[in-house]
Amino acid sequence: MPGPLQGIRVVDLSRALAGPFCSMMLGDLGADVVKVEMPGKGDEARGWGPPFKDGESAYFLSTNRNKRDMTLDLGKPSAAEALWRLVERSDVLLQNFRPGAIDRLGFGYAAVHARNPRLVFCSISGFGQNGPDFQRLAYDPILQGMGGLMSITGQPGGPPTKVGVAIADIVAGMFAAYAILAALYHRERSGEGQYVDTSLLDGQVALLAFQAGRYLIAHEVPEAAGNRHPLLAPSDTFRTGDGYVNIAAGNDAIWARFCRAVGLDALIEDPRFLHNADRVHNVQAMTDLIEERFATMTTDEVVATLDRAQVPAGPIRNIQQVFEDAQVQHLGLRQTVRHSRAGEIEIPGVPYRFSESPAGVHRPPPALGEHTDEVLGELGFTAGEITRMHSEGAV
């Protein structure tokens, strides 16, 4: 059964992570994503490692499922003609070159819009396409720091700490995919394509959410609080007899269930902990009492006890434990596919499900240039023309 974006073609000129993550999301939904790379070089993420599997980067394999791949050297006229034919037959163009670079290649928004007015053109950059910082070089950790996230991550009094995945890139890619879908919906009503502009800085500032609200509304400057939620209590990582457990008691009713379940009934009516604001104000005293109780329990005992009491709780797993988890596997978040060069590989699955137009992994991550001849044939190039393009180094 086709995905919800069947019939939509995406020209993916992006590389590294933010753009490829965006196009992967569109591919998961059924779009025909054609990734365009430089012959012999390709996306720099192909070289990011180790680990590698038969020369293929695990990093690249994890973020490029559900795409076809062709190589084009846009400095060659025949390759530029191929890209123009692809643009004219597509619905979306995605690029994350430095601002101005796509225009110098001859494929800026004005030129593309003139050839295909229905196309949605999306640019992802570090800081946006204009403004005082738009030409700054940008990688994920730079934006995690400049966007405020590192100032609220890590232990109190400790050094600034980044998130353990490239969250600035990933969030920018997700916002880009979200915006592209909105632009496609607009096109269905108006018949018009448009320009979509987002950046890693946009995504990081948007991700601040309630922490931004604390500053903008109350003029508080949030600081790192470790795993402790600054506005809810108990919502933290607590030490047990043999490890740690996460607990999130988001309201007074859950707090009462928590106390009864672990034998801390006296705390329910304790004025220091009566309501959430009281618990936040007296959070260290509350934490000490909870960890004193948990010292006599294992993590598994705490989780099982709180599950029965309908209190949100869970262990801290490593990545191996995550992908071995029965629920993760039930949701299809661990998929096995056959790569054309690396053979059988495992990759992450699609994180949502549809009842009528299912998303899924229908293509393994592509090898460099794997579908070049296939796509060129679809664009009307003859076998002789394709052979000549290979001999010229255009593909």
Report what the structure shows.
It is a single chain. With about 400 residues, the chain is of the alpha/beta class. The protein folds into two domains: about 10-205 and about 325-390, Crotonobetainyl-coa:carnitine coa-transferase, domain 1 (Rossmann fold, 3-Layer(aba) Sandwich), CATH 3.40.50.10540; about 235-315, formyl-coa transferase, domain 3 (2-Layer Sandwich), CATH 3.30.1540. The protein is about 40% helix and about 15% strand. The protein has 17 helices and 13 strands. The chain has helices at about 20-30, 60, 75-90, 100-105, 110-115, 140-145, 165-190, 200-205, 210-220, 250-260, 275-280, 285-295, 300-310, 320-325, 325-330, 370-380, 385-390; strands at about 10, 30-35, 50-55, 55, 70, 90-95, 120-125, 195-200, 235-240, 245-250, 315, 335-340, 345-350. The chain has a six-stranded parallel β-sheet, sandwiched between helices. The chain has a three-stranded antiparallel β-sheet with strand order 9-10-11, covered by helices on one side. α7 (about 165-190) packs across α8. The model has no long low-confidence stretch (mean pLDDT about 95).
Offer a quick outline of the entry.
By secondary structure, this protein is α/β, with parallel strands linked by helices. It has 2 domains: 9-207 and 326-392, 3-Layer(aba) Sandwich (Rossmann fold); 235-317, formyl-coa transferase, domain 3. 39% of the residues lie in helices and 15% in strands.
